[in-house]
Write a structure and sequence with these properties.
Helices cover about 55% and strands about 5% of the residues. With about 725 residues, the protein is of the alpha/beta class. A hairpin with a 2-residue loop joins strand 7 and strand 8 (about 405-410).
Length: about 725
């Protein structure tokens, strides 16, 4: 410490705690005398999450919220009529073989557009040597075209597709054509066991024929199965498949047309409209046809974008198509996983898997209320789940307390898939609404922000699709719940729905009604929406409503309204909020004064990272104290902000909370990017020699803390900043 400075005064030298001292006239202090037993203004303990058990919960929740907002069976092999669907469900087949030869025009197209996958040569060698090949893979990945091309290579065009109802165990050699190749995806009868495959292989050998069987993995099973006939189908690269189809569609066109179409395929607006990271072979064929039509002026640019937006919608429709087998336990678990991923897109693999199992139970008991659903243990595999849901696992982080820990996260391969899934369910599958809403409400009980915040954002998207139903069935009951997080869940749903031009006006009216006339819990929920900054046309209106909530019923919701005013200050970052707080402090009514004091304390206590929505000027300020960040981002606000904090320090009922917030600044400033901002801000709190003594006393007390003392450099810099401050 600088030896030329006088010895810092001890805490006892700073004088007694102020008792509602008047602020100097220049600061427009709050007026009014204190009662004999004044209320105490609370500090950082006013937690909008309702006292979460882990530290950092508010910051994690707001971070997930912002990142999530800035982030929702057939067996058709090739769409657009190239190769027909071969996966049908129906009655059990008869004993005769039903085979249809591949039409000549489809065979010519196959030869023109087929892109060989990397393992194609190995497939062909295995088929040539063994006569029989079982290809495992998901529908839509090009496995049927691979099968037909293999058979075409070995039989010179004598290719037939078998009826899916064919029972392979009943075949005899009289039903197999000499030198023919057969493709089949067994439906009802299923795939024969190894003995049955051996028998089929012997029959094929007698007629020098070949067969390729297409099999999708069982739900949760691995992609390949042990056995000498089985091979996993690995699709060809999507870019190569698309190039083949483009070449076929533009056959005979000048090279400039090819270049123009390739450029259009990479157009950012087209890629965004498509919303898929990588196209399946069937989708590549469809996309190539659309691009070719656009090149021939058969589709306008806007029409091309509209058609591209249907890719994700059609995938969702295929996933949730009805039928005889669509509500078996296995199919319901597939559906549950895709829905869980649509809601929790970007969360950890374990969180999505657990949420999917809970939803699968909800779906199963809805289908059969007498059922007692269980969970498979060893027949569930992560890799197959990811493939069947067009998802990918990545390395990410989640928070435990204040620290990030590495986790495997999961997301759809395309930003359009999550909203397409939710939209399809809400618009076309009405009976799914009940179990999904019950499940979403249950996810609110999960303490991890990565789960409950994402669930609330997804519910907000559903509210945009059907506002009346979702508000009645989910939002209002949760907005009136006892638990703070359930009410915050409802507030998050409404804030997301506010972005919709169709229902935004209705949501604003609902929030205003709750704020003015609701019971205690609905007013709390309305305040939590107002603090996000989107529930009113102007910030002034939001401050009016929050002010009314804060003084309602003798200040019962004062702390809750105050924290939302602090959040609102971080959304708008202008002088209006400061002036409103000053008006409350200057009001002669006690409850308005207390609201101003409480808001001031929370402006000092809340961190920028805790904000649900941030003004662009506050981006990059991380865990800065909000008041310091505002004073730095908007220097013109610094004197007004300091004046508010000075008033709280001068008022007895807010002194303890204000000095504790200031102590947290000083204690946490070491090696922080906001250390310099603190040194610039402290002199603004000095208006008298008593102010200086108070701050120097605080610095000395913290420097002598036996558990967490300030370092010598901190003390020297802060001491110099306070000593150098001028006084009137």
């Amino acid at each position: 410490m600088n030896a030329q400075n006088p010895a810092p005064p001890g805490p006892q030298q700073a004088g007694p705690k102020p008792q509602a001292q008047a602020e100097p006239q220049a600061e427009s202090a709050a007026q009014g005398s204190e009662p004999a037993q004044p209320d105490v203004i609370g500090g950082p303990a006013a937690d909008p999450l309702g006292q979460e058990t882990l530290p950092g919960a508010a910051a994690a929740a707001s971070r997930v919220y912002r990142s999530t907002l800035s982030s929702h069976g057939s067996g058709t092999v090739i769409s657009s009529g190239s190769v027909s669907a071969i996966n049908f469900y129906g009655e059990r087949a008869g004993e005769r073989l039903l085979a249809g030869p591949l039409p000549e025009d489809e065979l010519r197209r196959l030869r023109r557009v087929f892109q060989e996958p990397e393992e194609y040569g190995a497939y062909r060698d295995r088929l040539r040597a063994g006569r029989l090949l079982v290809l495992f893979g998901q529908p839509g990945t090009g496995r049927a075209y691979t099968a037909l091309s293999l058979l075409d290579d070995l039989t010179r065009g004598q290719v037939s597709r078998l009826d899916p109802r064919t029972d392979l165990d009943t075949l005899d050699d009289t039903q197999i054509g000499e030198g023919h190749g057969y493709a089949l995806e067994p439906a009802v009868a299923g795939l024969p066991d190894e003995t049955g495959l051996d028998r089929l292989c012997e029959l094929l050998g007698k007629k020098e024929a070949y067969a390729v069987l297409l099999v999708a993995p069982e739900p949760g099973d691995v992609l390949s199965r042990a056995g000498r006939y089985h091979r996993a189908h690995i699709p060809a690269p999507a870019d190569a498949v698309l190039e083949k189809h483009l070449a076929a569609e533009l056959d005979g066109a000048p090279e400039e047309s090819h270049d123009r179409v390739r450029a259009m395929a990479l157009d950012p607006a087209v890629e965004e409209a498509r919303g898929l990271d990588e196209l399946l072979p069937a989708e590549a064929a469809r996309f190539a046809k659309l691009l070719a039509r656009h090149a021939r002026d058969e589709l306008s640019y806007d029409q091309l974008l509209a058609e591209c937006r249907k890719f994700a919608e059609d995938q969702a429709a295929e996933w949730f198509a009805g039928g005889v087998r669509s509500e078996t336990p296995e199919r319901l678990r597939d559906a549950a996983y895709r829905i869980a991923l649509a809601v929790l897109d970007g969360a950890s693999l374990s969180a999505v898997a657990e949420a999917a199992e809970i939803l699968a139970w909800e779906l199963a008991v809805t289908v059969d209320p007498e059922a007692t659903p269980g969970r498979p243990l060893f027949s569930d595999g992560v890799d197959a789940r990811l493939v069947s849901a067009r998802a990918t696992a990545e390395l990410g982080v989640e928070q435990i307390g204040d620290e990030d820990v590495p986790v495997r996260t999961v997301r759809f391969r395309g930003e359009a898939l999550a909203p397409a899934v939710l939209g399809h369910l809400w618009q076309h599958r009405h009976n799914v609404r009940g179990p999904v809403l019950r499940w979403l409400a249950g996810l609110c009980e999960d303490p991890r922000p990565e789960v409950w915040v994402r669930a609330a954002v997804a519910a907000g998207q559903l509210c945009r699709l059907d506002c009346v139903h979702t508000v009645h069935e989910l939002v209002q009951p949760m907005g009136q719940a006892d638990q703070a997080r359930r009410r915050l869940f409802a507030a998050t749903v409404l804030d997301v729905a506010l972005a919709s031009p169709e229902v935004g006006t209705a949501i604003r009216a609902l929030v205003g009604h709750w704020a003015r006339q609701g019971d205690e819990r609905l007013r709390w929920t309305a305040g939590a929406v107002l603090g996000r900054g989107r529930a009113t046309a102007t910030a002034r209106e939001a401050l009016d409503l929050l002010g009314a909530i804060g003084v309602w019923d003798e200040g019962k919701l004062r702390a809750d309204a105050a924290v939302q005013v602090a959040h609102l200050a971080g959304v708008h970052a202008d002088a209006l909020t400061c002036r409103r707080i000053r008006a409350w402090l200057s009001d002669e009514r006690r409850h308005q004064q207390d609201l101003g004091l409480q808001t001031t304390v929370l402006l000092a206590a809340v961190s920028v990272v805790d904000l649900w929505n941030q003004h662009p000027d506050l981006e990059g300020y991380g865990d800065w104290p909000l008041m310091l960040a505002l004073a730095t981002a908007r220097p013109a606000l610094a004197p007004e902000l300091a004046g508010l904090l000075w008033t709280a320090l001068q008022t007895g009922r807010s002194y303890d909370a204000a000095i504790e917030a200031l102590a947290d600044w000083v204690r946490g400033s070491a090696d922080q990017p906001w250390a310099d901002a603190l040194e610039r801000f402290l002199p603004l709190l000095v208006h008298s020699h008593d102010d200086r003594r108070r701050l120097l006393s605080l610095i000395k007390e913290l420097s002598e803390d036996p558990d967490q003392p300030l370092n010598e450099q901190q003390v020297r810099r802060l001491w110099g900043a306070v000593q150098g401050a001028s006084t009137p």
